[in-house]
Specification:
Length: 118
């Protein structure tokens, strides 16, 4: 895999990772990552933010998504503007949430959520 790539350097749209581990093949395109672990091939699109996130390989995070205290299953496609980690009841409605506030997100859960919101 090629090394991780961090692109864009505009105010509010800066590819950055702080106190995080970012594996090869990841692209942080104008997204902010803090206290997180990104496995191989993760893509985080513009204006997204991740805090205390573990993203397994080949996760794709849409624009303006805001994720905190999440574990994201391999290959999941996080939709643009999804917010997880700010409202515990809303997170528990769609995803599996531990008593400590950690949220598990799988593609199946995302698909079920999208079907019910249509």
């Amino acid at each position: 895999m090629p090394p991780a790539k961090f692109i864009h350097d505009d105010p509010g749209r800066r590819g950055s990772a702080i106190s995080s581990l970012v594996s090869g093949g990841c692209i942080l395109s104008g997204s902010e990552v803090r206290n997180s672990l990104l496995f191989t091939g993760v893509r985080a699109h513009s204006y997204s933010s991740l805090s205390e996130v573990v993203a397994l390989p080949y996760v794709d995070i849409g624009e303006k998504a805001e994720l905190s205290k999440c574990v994201i299953d391999r290959g999941a496609r996080i939709p643009s503007r999804l917010i997880v980690g700010q409202d515990p009841e809303e997170a528990a409605r769609w995803f599996r949430r531990t008593d400590n506030g950690i949220v598990l997100i799988t593609q199946e859960m995302l698909d079920a959520r999208a079907a019910k919101l249509e």
